[in-house]
UniProtKB/TrEMBL annotation, chain A:
Residue positions of the active site: H58, H107 (proton acceptor)
Domain PurM-like C-terminal: 214-369, 588-725
Protein name, entry field: Phosphoribosylformylglycinamidine synthase subunit PurL
Gene that encodes the chain: purL
Binding sites annotated in the UniProt record for Mg(2+) 2: D129, D281
GO biological process, one term: 'de novo' IMP biosynthetic process
Reaction equation(s) it catalyzes: N(2)-formyl-N(1)-(5-phospho-beta-D-ribosyl)glycinamide + L-glutamine + ATP + H2O = 2-formamido-N(1)-(5-O-phospho-beta-D-ribosyl)acetamidine + L-glutamate + ADP + phosphate + H(+)
UniProtKB/TrEMBL annotation, chain B:
Name used for this protein in its record: Phosphoribosylformylglycinamidine synthase subunit PurQ
NCBIfam families, alphabetized: FGAM_synth_I, PRK03619.1
Gene3D superfamilies reported for this sequence: 3.40.50.880
Quaternary structure note: Part of the FGAM synthase complex composed of 1 PurL, 1 PurQ and 2 PurS subunits.
Active site per database record: C87, H196, E198
The encoding gene: purQ
Catalytic reaction(s) noted: N(2)-formyl-N(1)-(5-phospho-beta-D-ribosyl)glycinamide + L-glutamine + ATP + H2O = 2-formamido-N(1)-(5-O-phospho-beta-D-ribosyl)acetamidine + L-glutamate + ADP + phosphate + H(+); L-glutamine + H2O = L-glutamate + NH4(+)
One Gene Ontology CC term in the entry: cytoplasm
EC numbers: 6.3.5.3, 3.5.1.2
One of the protein's GO biological processes: 'de novo' IMP biosynthetic process
InterPro entries xrefs: Class_I_gatase-like, PRibForGlyAmidine_synth_PurQ
Amino acid sequence: MSRTPLDTVEHAAATPDVELPWAELGLKKDEYERVVEILGRRPTGAELAMYSVMWSEHCSYKSSKVHLRQFGEKAPQSDALLVGIGENAGVVDVGQGYAVTFKVESHNHPSYVEPYQGAATGVGGIVRDIIAMGARPVAVVDPLRFGAADHPDTKRVLPGVVAGIGGYGNCLGLPNIGGEVVFDACYQGNPLVNAGAIGVMRHEDIHLAKASGAGNKVILYGARTGGDGIGGASILASETFDDAKPSKRPAVQVGDPFQEKLLIECTLEAFAEKLVVGIQDLGAAGLSCATSELASNGSGGMRVTLDDVPLRDSTLSPEEILMSESQERMCAVVEPAKVDRFLEICEKWDVIATVIGEVTDGDRLEIYWHGGKIVDVDPRTVAHEGPVYERPYARPSWQDELQADDANKLPRPATSDELKDQVLKLVGSPNQASKKWITSQYDHFVQGNTVLAQPEDSGMIRIDEATGLGVAIATDGNGRYAKLDPYHGAQLALAEAYRNVATTGAKPLAVSDCLNFGSPEDPAVMWQFAEAVRGLADACQQLGTPVTGGNVSLYNQTGEAAIHPTPVVAVLGVIDDVARRTPVAFQEEGQLLYLLGDTREEFSGSAWSQVVHDHLGGLPPQVDLERERLLAEILISASRDGMIDSAHDLSDGGLIQAVVESALLGGKGARLVVPDGLDAFTLLFSESAGRAIVAVPRSEEVRFNDMCGARGLPVTRIGVVDGDSVELQGEFALSLEELRVVHEETIPALLK
Amino acid sequence: MTARIGVVTFPGSLDDRDTQRAIRLAGAEPVALWHKDKDLKQVDAVVLCGGFSYGDYLRAGAIARFSPVMETVIEQAKAGLPVLGICNGFQILTEAHLLPGGMLGNDHLHFICRDQKLRVENAETSWTSDYSAGQEIHIPLKNMDGRYVADQYTLDKLEAEGRVAFRYLDFNPNGSLNDIAGITNESGNVVGLMPHPEHAVEPLIGTGRTDGLPFFTSILKKLVNA
C-alpha cells in the first residue's frame, strides 16, 4: 500500500489545486500554464515529468528552433539527401546502393560534472541514433574543447573525457578516426565534448522512428531502467551551472558499452530479418521521449503499461521511470506475428526485451501504472508542440571594439632567429602540438576498413571491399574566428571541414553540426547564435551541401562568462575508390611543393596571434566559398588522376604548421623558398582560407600546373620535399628531430 | 580443397569479421563459431579474436574461458588443433591454461593503440612458419590489459624452450616482462599474442602494411600440406 493515492488522470482532474514541483523540474511558469491549458486540467505527476523533460531546451530546441528553420528553408537541392532534419540522424546516398547516416551531438555538461561517464555516454547516445536509422555504425569522431591547457582542472577533465571516449568506443568496436582537441580559457568550466558517428546501410534498410499499425507491439529492450540520469536533460543540459546549487552528480548517466555492443548486434539482426516497423533509441528524456516521439510520428496512439518496464531499482516511482536516462535501451515497434522472433534474437544476444505496450487506433498516448491511468496526452503536444521562443538578440556592444583591434598591427618577428623561435613556439603550443597522447587511446583499426585516421585531414572508411567505395568525414570549428564574427566564423568552420574532406580526395556531400553557445537568455549570445546559423545556412546553400541534422548545446556558460560561440561542423564526403585517397605525409624526396590559393596578410584570430601575443581581435580571414569549391574540385581531380602524392589543408597555424605536420608524418623534410610577392612571415603564419599545400611528383608537374591554370586556381611553387629538416631558404633550418620533440612532447608534459 | 578456419564470436567480440576477412584474403575459408555452441563444425583450426568478451567483466577472458565453445576448443587444442589467440583471445588462452602466464593492466594505465614493431622469435609454430626467425615486422597493437606476466620459473622455461614467439622491439607498450608480445605452447599448435595480425593484411587499410598476413598463410599451408 502506498501512503499517498496514485496521481492518476482522474485524481488530477478531481484535485485541481494540488501544487506540483514544476519549477524544480525546470519548467517556467508560463510553460506550466500552457500544459494545464493543453490538458484542460492540472497534469499528473507523470505527465508533468514528461512535459518537463521534453520541453527542456535540450529536447525541444525552444530557443533555437526559429533560427534552425533556415537549414531547411535554404537547403540546397541535393539528390544525395535521403532523410533530412528531424529524424534520429540524416541519411545520405553515397552511390552503389549504399546510404550513410551521420550526426554530431554534444555531451558537454555531463562531461564537466563527471568526465569519464559523461563522455562515454555521449558516444553511446550518438551510436544509438545511428543504429536507430537502420545502419551499422562504422566509425566515431570526437571534437573536444577544454579550458587552458595548463589549468589544473584541465588535468581532471581531459584525461577522464579521453578515457571515457576510448573506454566506450573501443569496447563497441568502432574505430575513432577524427575529431579535434582545442584548448582555450573560455572553455574553463564548460568543456565541449561533442561526439559524432557514421553508419552504413543499404537504401532499403532505412528505418524511421514511428509507431504505426494498431495492434503492433511496443518492445523495450536493452538495459534495465535505473535511477541514473533522472532529469539529466532538463536540469543538466538546460541550465547554467551555478555554484550555489547542490551537486548534480546523480543526474549523470552511467554507461555499459558491453550492453550497447549487444544492442547493436541484436538490433542489426532484427533489421536484417525485417522485424521492425519503427524504432527509437532512449537517450535524453528516456521513455518520455521514445514513447511520445514514436506515437506522434506514427498513425495512431499508444498504450503503455509502465509496470512491465524491467527495473534495476524496484523502488522507482512512475515519474522516475519515465524520466530515467539509463543508457543502452531502445524501443521497437513490431508486428504481433513477429514479436516471438524478435524476442528470440534478443535472447540469443542475452538482451532483455519486454513488450510494454501497443499501438492503438486512437490518437492519445496513455500510460498505466498499477492499473491506474497516469498519462493521457496528445503525444504531439509533448514531442513536437513545445514552447517556441523568439528570444531577443542584439549585437553586443563590445563587438565593434573587438573587431577594431586588428592583429595585423601586432609586432612581427624582426630577425630570422625570432621567426624561427616563433615557429617552434607555434608547433609546440598546446593547440598546434601533436595530439598523439590522446588519439593513441582510441582504437583506429577495428573493423579493418580504416583508410585514414587522425591526424589526417579527414577520417576515411572503406564501405565496400569489392569496389573500394569509401566515405570521409572531417569536423572543424574555430571559436576564436566565430567570436570575432559569428556569421563568417561559422562559414569558416564549414569551409575548413569541406576543404579537409576534399584534401583527402573525397567529394563533400552533406553537413551535420553541433552548435555550442552560451545562454540564450543573454541577447549577445543569442545574436551570436542567430548569426552563426544564418552564416552556416547561407554557406551550405552556396556549397550545395545540405545540413542533415545536428544538435544545439546552449547554456555553456558559468555566471556571466559564456564560451566563445563554437559551431562545430562535420562534413561527410564520398570517394569512389579509397586507393585514390591522398594522405598528409610527404611520400618521396624530390617531389615539388605547391601552395594552392591566395595568401593575404590575415592574422586576426590566428594561432600565431594567440601563441605569440595572447591576442584576440580584428576580423577573421575572408570567406570565398566559390574559391573553396574550385580548390576542392582541383584536389579531388588531382587525387583521382594521380597527380599529387600528399596534400594538407591550411588552417590554424598557417603554412608552417601544415609543412611541419606533413614532414613529421612522412619522416621527410622540406626546403621552402619565399615566393615573389610574399614575405617570410606572411607565408608561414597567415591563415587565409581556401588554401592547401600539395606534393607533386616531377612527372606530373606540367599536367598539374596546366590543370590549375586552365581552371583559374592560383598555384605557387614554394619548395621541394627534401632532407631531414624543414628549411626556409635564407631564414632558418629546423631538424625534424628538434621539431618532433617540440611538437610531440607538449601534451604528455602537460598531462603528466 | 582449402582449409576451414573457425572464428569464435563471444558477446563483446569485436574483430571477428576482420579475422574472417584476413582468413579469406589468405585463401582459406572462414567459419563462424558461436560461443554458446560446443560444435566446432569440423574446422581445421580456430582463431579466438580480439574484443571484450563478456565485457571483460571480472578479468579479461575470465568468463569466456568457461563458455560452451571453449570446452571443445580446450579439449581439441590439447589434441593438436591449431588455435590462435589474438589480444582478448590470448587472454582467454591464458585463462584456459592452454598458455602459461597472464595479462595485467598496461603499466601506464591507459588504453594504447599503435603500430608496434615486433621481432619474430619462433618461426616454427603452426601460425608463424611463413616468417623467418629474427624477422622484424610491424603489427597494430590495441589494448588495455596487455602486460604479460609470469613467474620467474615459467619465464625461464619459455625462454629456454624458445616459446617466446614474438617480442616487442624499440618500445615496450605495456610493461610486459621480457618484452613478450606472444608465446606458443610446447607443441607449437597454440599461439597467443597481444598485437593484431588481422589488422595488417591489406595495403591502404590501417597502417597500410601486410605484415600480419603470414599468420594466416602459415596455417593454411600447414593444413593443406598435411
